[in-house]
From TrEMBL, chain A:
GO terms for molecular function: DNA binding. Coiled coil: none annotated. Residues 64-127, 234-297 form the ChsH2 C-terminal OB-fold domain. The keyword DNA-binding applies. Keywords: DNA-binding. This is DNA-binding protein. The keyword Cytoplasm does not apply.
UniProtKB/TrEMBL annotation, chain B:
It comes from the Bacteria. Gene3D superfamilies: 3.40.47.10. It comes from Streptomyces mangrovisoli. One of its GO terms (molecular function) is acyltransferase activity, transferring groups other than amino-acyl groups. Residues 243-372 form the Thiolase C-terminal domain. Coiled coil: none annotated. SUPFAM superfamilies: Thiolase-like. This is Acetyl-CoA acetyltransferase.
Amino acid sequence: MPEVLKAPLVVEFPFTRSLGPVQSAFLTGLRERVVLGVRTGDGRVLVPPMEYDPVTAEDLRDLVEVAPTGTVTTWAWNPAPRRGQPLATPFAWALVRLDGADTALLHALDAPGPDAVRTGMRVRVRWAAERTGAITDIACFEPYAGPDLDGREGPAAVTSEPRPHDGQFADPVTGIVAEARLDYVYSPGRAQSAHIHALADRRTVGERCPECHKVYVPPRGACPTCGVATTEQVEVGPRGTVTTYCIVNIKAKNLDIEVPYVYAHIALDGAGLALHGRIGGIPYDQVRMGLRVEPVWTDDARFPDHYRPTGEPDADYDTFKELL
Amino acid sequence: MSKEPVAVVGIGQTKHVAARRDVSIAGLVREAARRALNDAELTYANIDAVVIGKAPDFFEGVMMPELYLADALGAVGKPMLRVHTAGSVGGSTALVAANLVAARVHGTVLTLAFEKQSESNAMWGLSLPIPFQQPLLAGAGGFFAPHVRAYMRRSGAPDTVGSLVAYKDRRNALKNPYAHLHEHDITLEKVQASPMLWDPIRYSETCPSSDGACAMVLTDRAGAARSPRPPAWMLGGAMRSEPTLFAGKDFVSPQAGKDCAADVYRQARIADPRREIDAVEMYVPFSWYEPMWLENLGFAAEGEGWKLTESGVTELDGELPVNMSGGVLSTNPIGASGMIRFAEAALQVRGQAGEHQVPDAHRVLGHAYGGGSQFFSMWLVGDRPPQT
């Protein structure tokens, strides 16, 4: 059996987020080294703050400032930090209930080892040097033994009482960019791998369904309508028929193809359904349904670069009307 | 035991726009939910369960957004379900909610669908760079345009029909305060002069990209009796699916769409949809899909759908108005688009569609499809309870 292919698939995108009033105040506050929570209808203080009351579903807008010091309520040691995590060295993931808050915030706790971490230990915020209005403005938490609950420079009051805050800051942050990245290993499986191997010899190989006898190109290893495995390999093409098409007049961002060009459905001779390809070697406005075409390969490509007319007479509509 | 009749007693939408930068996703869905509750004169306390839908998580990149939206939707302590069936999801979400009422699992259900397209990238989300696969050589319109050409070939429709649909829907949108596009200076000439993007699809014949949410309160017979405003009654509802791509697939008139419509008509005892249904809100993201779906849904014989459009039958004052709200062509927060069709159908039979109200709308069809014509969901609503 030929080798089943595998390749990395990285999916990443910089998503944007509109914050709404509460998260906007929270993240702008972090930029200004102020941790904000929100008071619920039953008087509890939620940190991080939420827009809506988890008990009553009412709007929550009653912002309060809590201290940058707090207590670890539970934790887990992370011995091998991964890319994008708050610290590059081993650290604890900790839930920290800040002084004045009734709920705990998840963040990293910088500690020399798991023996140095315990539930109930006192910690304080270590602010990032560069702050932009993001949760990473808290670089991490760090162990703290001092008496100053406020934690800021100067003669601040030693108090754990949350203080009302109007949530107003100059130049508030209203949106953030959330970089998302997922790393997969993708395998197209047995049937498609065989198809791809054959393409290297410029042959197009599909598989025939033992029940409906239709040939799937590319093959999927099973027939989606009959629900049975397909194993019989069948070479199709190389010639085929343009069954339908459109003329693309706008340049797609990631494609280096001069417009206008024709994007077509092509039923290769012997195939049970059409595949997609570009038509070249003919003015775009002369392409038509029924045009007979053949693949044009370039040296190093996995797929035909495009298809060009063979010069044969056009196929009769009735011969391909089921293959649009 | 017969099913419990299902009534729509609350409908809420956001004003659909290109970008709602003033609200979070939670704030957006909350706005639609509150409007639906206000319409029903109910509160979250009256809701037994929440059923929410949206298009793929990749669109906004929030994985399982329903988890964090539970607070905003008053779902804490209640069942909350997420539905996903690509572009048809708004419709299938409403049907899952309706089935919970019909089966007497819950008395009153809040159902809601949304998309915040400004925070997403639908094209990216739908075309991941899968190794070894040939990339799609055209945009979203390029996927659908060849099917439109196939329809034109099969039906012999003149190439002017697509522009007529776009011109009609954009004018209808002017009468709908929630519609995204309000092109006050729209003319047929402007539509016809708009750039040909994916020939035969013009720019003005494509849908916009919108931020928006739509919500409905569905309830049982007892709930309907308490409703302050006339309810809409579900007379039939169905979903069907088929593979996106298979040998023998008919992209012009998919079998799953025909089967879905037939099921709805059987439930509602509709023998002749063209005569017995008063108006349709159908999912038309590219203008040519109006004549295609008119045939697929049984309002016209095969090859004849374009004649209804061309002769004005589908105009707001025609015999069978289609997309009175302006449709997907005027408003497309993808995940919500199907539910907006369902909700607009209900607004019509409740007599609450305002300026785009069709007189004497007794039975109206709401229709949605998605996933490369893979998923279909439809409901028929009426101003009278179903006969039992």
